[in-house]
Amino acid sequence: MPLTSLIGLPGSGKSTVGRTIARRLGMRFVDTDAEIERRAGKAVRDIFEAAGEVAFRDLEAAVVADLVCGTNAVIATGGGTVLRPANRLALNTATTVVYLRCRPDTLFRRLRNDKRRPLLQVNDPLVKLRELFSERDPLYRETAHFVIECERPTVTMLANTVMMQLELAGFANSDRASPRADLPNDDQS
Ligand code: S3P
Fold first, then answer.
1. Chain mean pLDDT for the chain
2. Which long-range contacts (CB under 8 A, 24 or more apart) does 146-153 make?
3. How far is 95 from 144, CA to CA, in rounded Å?
4. From the CB of 8, is ligand 1 less than 6 Å away?
5. What confidence category does residue 48 fall into, taking pLDDT thresholds of 50, 70 and 90?
6. Which helix (H) or strand (E) holds 71?
7. How confident is the model at residue 152 (pLDDT cuts 50, 70, 90)?
8. Is the CB of 79 under 6 A from ligand 1?
9. How far apart are the first and last CA of the chain?
């Protein structure tokens, strides 16, 4: 699996999940915001303040264009990466894209005290998160190969996640054995 990327709103867990997956797969982990900060020599917040959002998006597009040429890495993208069509196309064609889909209220609880994300330094961050969700959810869906719902996982989803982890750890393989008749149906919660 050469390149995997994670997309989703701020606070959806792209960096944390990405770092974990990269470790399990023995691959490099790259965070586009961290790479932008490294190249610019300043924090994302300072880039927004000094040069504006368009300049930040230009840097972001350059980083995405470079990263999709690599291999064997897990990439956590910034929440607004999908705004530019060229980024959506590059991620979708060169990487396996996973959308971590969370509701704005959940993200708000996680990000209430955040001072790092310039777009959320507003009077009402919940309203802002709702706007971002309605604008971007279709773009995330269009870009992604897989959508992972972050809320209320069903028994089936939990079971699939456990199975995937067992497969990654080498404790199971994907050729499923036939289900045992004495176990309950996995759709009952
Ligand atoms: C942004 C999200 C941030 C960062 C920048 C803009 C956005 O990344 O790229 O502040 O437009 O949603 P995270 O999604 O990692 O917070």
1. 88
2. 146/96, 146/97, 146/98, 146/99, 147/98, 147/99, 147/101, 148/98, 148/99, 148/100, 148/101, 149/101, 150/12, 150/13, 150/100, 150/101, 150/102, 150/103, 150/106, 151/102, 151/103, 151/106
3. 10
4. no
5. very high
6. none
7. low
8. yes
9. 33
136 lines ligand 1 (CB under 6 A): no
Assess whether the C-beta atom of 78 lies below 6 angstroms from ligand 1: yes
| Site of tokens 């269009």 | 142
Determine the distance separating the centroid of ligand 1 and the alpha carbon of 32, expressed in angstroms.
Answer: 9
Which residue, 158, 142, 17, is CA-closest to 84? 142
Which position has the token pair 């924090």?
A: 43
Q: How far apart are CA 82 and CA 136, in angstroms?
A: 8
d(CA 104, CA 124): 12
Which of 146, 136, 139, 135 lies closest to 100, judged by CA? 146
* DSSP designation for 162: H
The overall pTM is greater than 0.70? yes
